[in-house]
Amino acid sequence: MKSIITKLSLFSLMAVLAATTFVAPVQAADEEETTYTEVSFAGMLRELSSTDVPTTIVVQENETEENYTVDIDEETLFGYGLSDITKMDDWITGDQIRVIGLQDDNTGVINATVVINLSMKPYLYRGLNGWITDIDEDDSTMTIQWNNIEHEVDVTEDTHMVAGELNPAELSDYEIDDRVRIRVERDSEGGDDATIIVLLRRGDEIYLKARTRGFQAELTDISGDDGDATLTLTLLENPHLQEGDVNNLVGVEGDTVTVVIDENTNFVRRFMGESDFEDLVVGDELHIVGRVNDDETITAWLIRNKNLWTVSPLFHLGLVTDVDSDSVTVEAYNNQCELATEDVIEILFDDETRVLDGAWESEFDEIIEGDYLRVRGVIDANASQIDAETVMIVPGWVCAAAQAE
Question: What is the pTM of this model?
Answer without folding.
Answer: 0.64
